[in-house]
Amino acid sequence: MPEFDELFRALDTDRANVVWKWKLLEELKQAGLRADDPRVERALAVDVGTPFEAGQPEWLDREQFAGVMQEPVVGRALQGQLAMPADEFSAFTSGVARIYDELQDERSGAVAQYIPTLRNADPERFGIAVCTGDGQVFQVGDAEAGFSVQSTSKPFSYAMALEQFGAGEVHRWVGQEQSGGTFNDPRLSLDAAGRPQNPMINAGAIATLALVEPDQDVSERFAKVEQTWTRMMGAAPGFDHRTFLAERDTGHGNRGLANLMAAQEMLNVDPKDRDAPQKAAEFYFAVCSLEVDAKRLAAAGATLANGGASPYTGEQVFSPQTTARALAVMGHSGMYNDSGQFAAQVGLPAKSGVSGNVLMVVPDRRLAVVTFSPRLDAAGNSVRGVEVCKRLSAEFNLHPYAELGPARHAFAGVTRAGAGSPGHHNVAAPATSSVTRAGGLQL
Ligand code: GLU
What we know:
This protein is an alpha+beta fold. Helix content is 42%, strand content 9%. The strands form four sheets. A five-stranded antiparallel sheet has the order 4-3-10-9-8, with helices on both faces. Bound molecules: glutamic acid.
């Protein structure tokens, strides 16, 4: 296996016929795989060589190194075959780190006021996390500070409903157009078919959650939601009890929406249970109160960037079709009443929550970026979060329509990866492209 010999030689810098463990970890870090990544931990759990002296770093001989390479993601990382090659990953994440620094003094906006947990949030918090479809991770600032996921749960709840019932049934209950109203508009506005406008507004989110394991007991339904988040993130979400209690006490508007939808028979609940709409609203409050952090939420986003497969386990949590729909609705309605403007300027699917999180997916690069900073703008989006998205999109040319030009008019012959008919070029994510796509797309 020549690649193996080449790799071993490249890492055996002392020519001692061993690879230092620290050196291997350094190499993996460059590629975006952290030492606490369970796959890296598992790979390095091999019995490593005895230190020469106490306190000396440990080493791997050829055989042990071969064992480490058996872990697929480690092997691919060392061979430069991850979702993002190490040099691109480092170019992109250096940009993220710089933007993080540049936005430290951005203090405009105000934290959400409607419940104490959000009102009392530390407005200075700021963290960014990046996760690729292969689980390459970069984080800066408060990327492990917990927050309630709030409305960023909505595309995932929608995906869960789609997985269970399919688009035909789900869209009997909820539409798929921009609403034009605020996300929390307590007046129920239904489309021509009598449905809430889309799954990103509160009424639509309550309606889609009513399609998640509807025949089960509510605790089992909630467990299903928690398990789905765990499968995406490779770690369980927490639960913010205070937020849940406050949402439940103050959520009159959401309860009202649930009642009105039930009255119109547009909520999938037992029509003879007079408490059913209340229970539907409470289920929604509980899901909004799931606690995550930027790092874990980025892994959920990377699941979407990966066509529904978890970045850490490769497990297909959602089908590619479900994932495509979740991304599409984020693309047109994910950023409250600034969704249209965001789509025009940034061009990428994103969802924000009033706790100050923004999840943006870059499907073309198979990665997700999550920001957390509690000060919100007038639309309810994190000020710093939106700015991070705008700057990343502009600096790395992530807007899908940013580089259209005469050079790309050759439509015939251009197909998507894997779907090409014979003789067609495949231009999807060329392995050698620079993250900045400095030279444009080469056909
Ligand atoms: N639980 C919040 C509500 O229903 C969600 C707010 C949000 O993040 O948009 O009002």
